[in-house]
Write a structure and sequence with these properties.
With 378 residues, the chain is mostly helical. It has 17 helices and no strands.
């Protein structure tokens, strides 16, 4: 096989096309973000974009940088679980915009079991997964039996989940603050174990088994979708529900199971984050956490591939956290969210880029074939 043939095969590879398209989205998004920074305040644009990209590397001390790398990984692991939730449903033809609400339910379940019932961490994690899965199953059942669009039911459930969780967690609120009681002081056994991972990140106590668990879940989701009969049935149901039914597949059951699994993944992400002790829930919260919505972006930036979402989730969290190091006298911290929004918006063009590239390669191959045919006739 010559070099030209190898190069053509690489360009035809779906994974390679996704990587190139995603990198282009990132570069163009950063360029547009830099232009916006120049418009707002040209004097600090270069330093601001560097600060956003550097994130924890902003610290001159290696120990401090390692510690804040651990914090970024904890947040990225929760984002990864939400992106897997969106990706899993999308692979089966469903758009799980309810990952945000399922994430909220996971927060409520894990914290309530930890603070109200003093349960160990494993029980709290299982509670978050099961209850979030049930909430996802509601949207799945409405879709399967009544053909209710899952986007509509999920959006409604997002807000129902938020206010129900606020009322529930008001029972375990700290009397002096609007936040829930700190897990570390109330029920230390509910904290996820570190298993030595904290020492790897300059004694960052928030780095727990949740970080590697999220990566393992990404691998398991890939295996389930790509290497199992069950995964094939789920994707077949998403492609054509009637054809799947004709082939003997239980399409209604598959739709409900898909949304339940998606909900469980989002719930696991919530427990991984809040049972690390990194943050407390504010019971007066009036907006759904962005973690679930950012999961949509991470899923598409990762090319709807479970392994790709590992890297896209980290990148989005990296630049989001990097926004805190921007000079506040010139720019607001939300400027990183604006830049990530540009990148997210451009993710919609990943598919168009791949279509354009394949058409270009097809035309080039046709041209080569005609040239070879003419050469043979001569």
């Amino acid at each position: 096989m010559d070099k030209k043939t190898k190069k053509d095969g690489l360009l035809r590879n779906n994974g390679f096309q996704t990587i190139i398209a995603s990198l282009l989205c990132i570069l163009i998004g950063l360029l547009i973000g830099y232009i916006v920074l120049l418009i707002i305040n040209p004097g600090g644009a270069a330093k601001a974009i560097v600060a956003i990209l550097k994130n924890f590397l902003y610290y001159p001390s290696a120990a401090a940088a390692t510690k804040y790398l651990g914090t970024t990984l904890v947040k990225a692991s929760a984002l990864l679980m939400c992106s897997l939730s969106v990706l899993f449903a999308y692979k089966v033809g469903l758009f799980n915009i309810g990952a945000a609400g399922q994430y909220v339910v996971g927060v409520g379940a894990s914290l309530y079991f930890a603070l109200k019932f003093n349960m160990p961490w494993i029980v709290c994690v299982l509670a978050a997964i099961v209850i979030a899965a049930l909430v996802g199953g509601v949207s799945g059942a409405l879709k399967a039996y009544f053909n209710v669009n899952e986007v509509i039911s999920c959006i409604m459930l997002n807000w129902i989940s938020l206010y129900c969780v606020n009322m529930l967690l008001a029972q375990v609120k700290d009397a002096s603050t609007p936040y829930t009681l700190p897990i570390g002081k109330t029920n230390e056994g509910a904290l996820l174990p570190n298993m030595g991972l904290d020492k790897m990140f300059s004694n960052n106590e928030f780095v727990t088994v949740g970080v590697p668990l999220a990566i393992i879940m990404a691998i398991l989701v890939w295996i389930l979708l790509e290497k199992t009969k069950f995964g094939y049935e789920l994707k077949a149901t998403g492609m054509n529900k009637q054809a799947a039914k004709y082939c003997g597949m239980k399409e209604k059951r598959n739709i409900i199971l898909t949304m339940m699994i998606a909900g469980g993944l989002a719930g696991l992400g919530a427990s991984v984050f809040y049972l690390s002790g990194i943050e407390q829930w504010m019971v007066q919260q009036t907006s759904v956490p962005l973690m679930g919505f950012n999961g949509i972006a991470a899923a598409f930036l990762g090319g709807l591939n479970p392994i790709g979402t590992v890297f896209s989730s980290y990148f989005i969290q990296h630049i989001t956290s990097g926004g805190t190091y921007v000079d506040k006298t010139m720019y607001c911290t939300q400027i990183s969210d604006l830049i990530s929004a540009f990148i997210i918006y451009l993710c919609g063009f990943v598919l168009f880029f791949k279509i354009w590239l394949n058409r270009y390669l097809d035309k080039r191959d046709e041209r080569r074939a005609r040239e070879m045919q003419k050469g043979g006739e001569a």
